[in-house]
Amino acid sequence: MYEKLEDQSIELTVMKKMHNISLCVMRKEGMKKIFDEIIETAIWIMQADRGTLQLLDESSDVIRIIAHRGLDHSFLSYFNSPHKSQTACGLTPKCCEHIIIEDITQNSFVDSQSLEVMLAAGIRSMQSIPIFNRTGQLLGILSTYHRTPHQPDTKSLQLLDLLAQQTLDIFKHTQAEEEMRENEERHRALTKELLKEIEGHRLFSELIGLQDFKKALSAAITSIRNITKCQAIAMRLEDGGDYPYFVWEGFTEEFILQEKSLCAKDEMNNRILCENGQYLLECMCGNVIRGRINPSMSFFSTGGSFWSNSTSELVAQTPRENLQGKMRGRCCAYESVALVPLKIKEKIIGLIQINDSRKNLFTKEMINYLEMLGERIGAAVSHWWVHKKLENTIDELHAENLVRIEAQKKAAFAYDQIHQMLERITDGFFALDNEWRYTYINSVAEKFWFCNSQDMLGKKIWDCFTNVQPYYDEYHKAKKENTAVHFEAKSASTDAWLEVHAYPSPEGLSIYFRDITEHKAIEQKELEYRKLLEEQILLLNLDPDYTFIHDLNGKISFWGQGAARGYGWTEDEALSKISHTLLKTQFPYQLPASMKKWWLRANGWENSSIQLKTINK
pTM value? Predict the structure, then answer.
């Protein structure tokens, strides 16, 4: 048994078990086996009966049980629900300390529903250790459980801390491997998409087919941004010897304004000319456009591009003279930066700039494909200039029709997206125009009203439902005051109670509702129970006898006025005290176990009155 082992033997056994976990990770035996081994080790350390390992799901911000031992479906389902996804007892860790509950039945922080689920699972005590990363973000929770009340010793908790640290390392290792795998998959997908873009000449055909040059280039960078998933992208084109941003997405207006011109200026704010008659261009963009590159350096490509997956490391490790010119430093907020030249044959007419705050966005292969794409765009721009001169007589109505068709497609797509979203929500939803006519009814509302939306669309709400005074007043208030309204009211078509939220807009009203009948019934029962309790207390206070109530452990929960008069202690002095201690009972009479069982089985009041021989205050 654990308690018979020496401390050194215990530590050696734990170290062996943790070593086996590390071997499982190295052999890539699967996360399920690794997590099961962690739980088995935690249970051995704590000599517990059950255990869970929870992990934060960042996509939903919910802590879910990913591995367990000895727990049934009811327990897992309850504590995996979003409203209970904290520790597996409903408590949320606030710091890096253990959560120890020696007896859950005596702990006020465990709510009644959680207590019921845990007792049904055979749990009386628990120990949890939250797992945080270096920034203090909660990553997961390791918990063990006992069938009986239990207080762990210091040594066990220290060993559990070591296991939790190893679990944190495994979490970080797993996340790093997952990020690496996702990056590799993303890079493969990006490369494939770029290759399709180049081989299919799609950007080329899009550019020469549009009449608005700026819109054409905007479409080009949008396409590249969608493929690369980058945060910001822009295109510079030659304009009077300078190369300002022509189109961009994702950059702030402040950034574009500050970096619009690449020209170096003198003390008089005049642009500086070089000996060859060209303006002197600053920063790395100027290097790429002027061809001031050294392909022997890792951040330049043979195709004339600059790229880095970590500008912070590049700036820290590269001598300033190797950067080939004056650097402004405004791109230092971005880690991944690529500057790809746009060429017409060997002439550079601009560049594509791709920035992202994340590291490792690019690969050498991707830069090569982007350079090929830059050549295609450069050729397309050149062709467009020629094509523009030959297409002055193109019918403007045709172009407008193309735009209108595209807008109709986008509008239809947007409607489909909104429709799908509204059909997925669990609340009833409908929309009214400014004439109080139905313009949309989702399926939840249809089922609640037992109607077909097609029969109601276009009809006024006041014609479909009568006796709707609360709704009439609130909806008119929302429109008149242009403010959202929230209220509860009886349904106009059933006996159900509804919670209603109405939001005004220039087009009318958007209304959400849900059935709260059960909630209202619970509220009513609570009111009735509270009233009954107050009546019982009033009756007990009218009793001239020395009446008080305590639980089976003697803790006083009610101290009547008769008891206060007779014994001499006030209500404040007596409440929560132990009766036979307070009253100096000479022979406290304990209920026989058989009577106590019968009383509880009969749903009797657990806090029963017991007559004692006492000495007054």
Answer: 0.38
